[in-house]
Write a structure and sequence with these properties.
alpha/beta, binds 2-deoxy-2-amino glucitol-6-phosphate, 3 domains
Length: 607
Amino acid sequence: MCGIVGYVGYRDCSDVLVKALSKLEYRGYDSAGIAVFDEGKIKVVKSKGRLADLEKKMLKQGALKGTAGIGHTRWATHGEPSDRNSHPHSGARVTIVHNGIIENYREIKEYLQRHDVKFISDTDTEVVAQLLDYNYNGDPLATIVKTVEKLEGSFALGIVFADFQDTVYAIRRESPLIVGVGKDENFIASDVPAILKYTKDYYLLEHDEIAVLSKTGVEIFDINLEKIEKELKTADWDMDAAEKGGYEHFMIKEIHEQPTAIKTTINPRIQNGLPDLTECGITIDTLREFKQIFVVACGTAMHAGMVGKYTIESLARVPVIVDIASEFRYRQPLVGEGDLVIIISQSGETADSLAAMRLAKKLGAKTLAIVNAKGSSIAREADMLIYTHAGPEIAVASTKAYTVQVAVMYLFAFLLAFAKGTIDEDECKRLTKLLSDTPKIIEKSLDKTKKITQFVSTKLIACDSLMYIGRGLDYALSMEGSLKLKEISYIHSESYAAGELKHGTISLITDGMPVIAVATQPHLFEKTISNIKEVKARGAKTIVICTDGFNVTDDVADYIITVPKTDDILMPLLAAIPMQLIAYYTSVNKGNDVDKPRNLAKSVTVE
Ligand code: AGP
């Protein structure tokens, strides 16, 4: 987590760093800080709280003047959010910002303490700053190499040495880092949106590569200090993609971007009416080989995998095990040759998902990554790769990344079923056509459900706890609805398989407790209605999300939200919309910080 930036050029560095950090705040926002070469000295200003708090402090103290420096926005891991623990951290001659976790920091700290080095923070990062200072021999590159040799864990570091004015050094291992290249100015950043205002050209640093940035150029070295040439990439996002564009929050903007995101993701992968994933390394022949599929991911991405499971199993008749990445990696999974492991990740940097993928590869399985962030670690290391084209997702609560992941799971499931011969070409074409029609229907669903979800949210703001229920695909979707609501509204919520409630959880239902039931699957409809009646009989206020034309009577539902109809299997794409809107409006009505919910960060690069 955490976002790091660095700048060397001709502009007011403080201003560039703060603007760049504002585009990375989604990575962490409990404190922020910058260090700038100001009149020949490295000066630091940092503050607990949001970037806005740092800006206030800068106004009060007087801005740092200079054209080179580094900056940081933090999601605390080691040490509480406080001024003292905020980055940058310094030794006597060196100042750094860090994203990642140094696993052996205690050991190094004790070693340095035995050599009379004093520490002022609780962070693992200060240990790196002090070790750099301890190893410093007047040669920054040699010092960096000597220091990182001792580090275990993950890091992207922005480093400035007091003796080397207006030069920014950077190195990464595991944590992402790009080097932006402009005219007479260069940048480092954890993610592309930070530099888009200034340049679209960038290098992707690989593990243990070191970048040296001056105003006039960028040099990149490997860990043996051999100079290397790298391919200059060009970002295909424009500035608007990383701005709110007139919407009040990124989340609602991203909810509205879903039809386009789905179109852009699936249309290029349809040829002659059939899914075509050959450019992703997936052919009919490869698909025929797989006997068992694992979908491994975290949070929302894992929920997209649940929709994939129900779809693949029912259409292609191939067993699918959905695993939480942090469980998969430590439970000695029975994975091996002949298995396919699908890793789903918006950021492509989630530590547990990346580690799970590496484990799957080690065990002999083939890996397929479904990833949104271009060039991310998961994207680069997977055997096969399907990029989702959602564009940058800034709101911490994932919306468009989820629906594009689900759309890709559908494409994959249709192709797999066709490859396995469990559906014929006509059926595959029919389903693919319906999938490509969903963006239009989602637009309708957005219009249709806006008012009612706004209204329903007013009924939720006062409650402490609620429940989401559903069966089959509706259950898979209700997991996501529940997560969305709790992460941004702070209302406790659980999702439950509707038929499982009576085995214990129904005892939680009290008078007036809201229960959101999803009922879009005709073959499960009557069963779900019975389960809704069971909770209603125990006092629950029921909100039923169902397909247009389903007969839900007033004695079953206190509020009914209907979504347009498509093939049953595709209904999660449509029913996801009111789920997202309910979460959004509840958070807005509670006055919460919708895009940056407490305790969370967008990219979870720690275990
Ligand atoms: C979604 O709203 C979450 N904030 C979170 O669950 C997220 O989906 C999860 O951390 C996985 O992230 P990834 O897709 O970047 O791997």
